[in-house]
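pinned: reference chain
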Amino acid sequence: MNQLRLTEDEQDCLQELINVAMGQASDQLARYLDSFVYLKVPSIESVDADSLATTLDQQQSAMAVVSQGFFGYEGIRGEALLVYQDEDSERLADLLGYEPDELSKDEQLIDISSILTTTFLNVFASQIENQISYSAPKLLPSRANSLSEHLDQLTFNWDLALKVNINYQVTDYSFNCNMVLLIPETAINNIKVVLNRILEEL
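pinned: its C-alpha cells
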C-alpha cells in the first residue's frame, strides 16, 4: 500500500496543477455568476479505508451531497462529491439566477454541482493533456450510510484513496460548499505516471 502514496515531488506537482485549475475555474465561475469566488488552499492526502470512512461520516452530516463520477484517458478516474450545508440551500436560486419556483431545490443542487465539477476538472485535464467524461450527477439520500453505500456500489477499490478537498466561497451571496475528489487505489498509480512525466519535462 505504501508504494501507492505520492512522493513529495509528486504531491508538489499535483498541488500546483490543482492550484492552476482552481484559479482558472474560479475565474470562469466568477464570470458565470458575476460574483467573486474565494478559494482556500486545497488539502491533498492519501487515506486508507478507515480514514475514508471518517470522511464519509463527516460529509454525511451535511445538508446534501451530490456525487458525480469522472473518467479520463490513461486510467484517471474517481468520484467528485459536492457537499452543502443547510444554511446555504436557500441561496441557490439567487446564486444561479433562477426564479424561486423555476427549479426544485434538488435540481438547483445538481445544477451548480455539475458546473463546479466539470469546470474544475476540465481545466485540470487540459493541463495534463487529458480529456474527462462524466457520469450524471446524483443527489444522494440524506439517510445515514447512503454515501458509503453509494461508493460501495462503484467498481473501484477504496482500500486506499487520494483525497483532494477544495472549498468554494461565493462572497456576494455568503455561499460556500466543499468539493471532495476521491481517486481510488486503482487510479493512483496512473496519476503517479502522469505526474512523473510532467516532472521529467521540467
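why pinned: The first strand starts at residue 37 and ends at 39. The first helix runs from residue 8 to 33.
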